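Last lecture ended with a question: if I hand you only a sequence, what can you say about the shape of the protein? Today we answer it with a concrete record. The protein is TonB C-terminal domain-containing protein. Below, first the input exactly as provided, then the predicted structure, then a couple of comments.
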Amino acid sequence: MKIISTLLISFCCIPAFAQKHNASTKITRAASFRGDTAMFQNYIQDHTRYPEYAREHGIEGTVITRAVVNETGQIEQIAVLRGIGGGCDSEAARVVKGMPPWQPALYQGKPVKAVVAIPVSFRLE
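The predicted structure:
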């Protein structure tokens, strides 16, 4: 049985400093993975291990994670917003936690913390 783990690229980037600014404050550049979409997907596929329990019980779906990309691009404060169980939630969080540094978000030309949503899909083939 071949395992496919894909990532739906749909980052939602929200400035983590919004409580200090007007609600309409816009970042000038969203936090982003260093590299193109294909590199991002390859990272997820190469580093995700389909949990044995989920495989044995046919658990598939998309885990939505949330993380903060800090001013230096480090990933921190990882949380699962919507899980699917079977060990997939903790595996998605582990993969996100291990990501290399990102390009931080910019506000008025300065790096700022930003919240990103990263969906990680688990599919059995």
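Comments.
1. The beta strands are 3-7, 12-15, 61-69, 75-82, 105-107, 110-112, 114-124.
2. The first strand starts at residue 3 and ends at 7.
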